[in-house]
Design goal:
By secondary structure, this protein is α+β, with helices and mostly antiparallel strands. It contains three helices and five strands; from the N terminus they run αβββαββα. The strands form two sheets. Strands 1-2-3 form a three-stranded antiparallel β-sheet, covered by helices on one side. Strands 4-5 form a two-stranded antiparallel ribbon. The protein is globular.
Length: 98
């Protein structure tokens, strides 16, 4: 991995850790240490498709409903689908379920 890519990844981890009020997990299998989450941070220059899907979900969501995106691929079990939610919404959920 190129040095600049590692720096960008580390900076993304630091920013997410600060936002979620947790710590980076040095030498662990996951990126961030949180009391209720196992966090893997992925930094990419562009996430156009994911962003478009989330914007569609947000535009369609009635007031008071949490917009999420569920990704599904052919022959994937429904329980194994990946669910996307804005980090700000996850933070709100964590705060209300403590």
């Amino acid at each position: 991995m190129a040095r600049i890519s590692k720096i960008r990844g580390r900076n993304a981890e630091l920013n997410v850790a600060k936002y979620l009020e947790c710590q980076r997990a040095h030498f662990e299998k996951y990126d961030l240490v949180h009391d209720r989450l196992s966090v893997e941070v992925k930094h990419r220059a562009r996430l156009a498709t994911l962003e478009a899907w989330m914007c569609q979900s947000e535009a369609a969501a009635p007031p008071g409903r949490l917009p999420i995106v569920v990704t599904h691929s052919r022959q994937q079990k429904i329980a194994d689908c990946i669910c996307l939610v804005r980090l700000s919404e996850l933070k709100k959920l964590l705060a209300t379920t403590e």
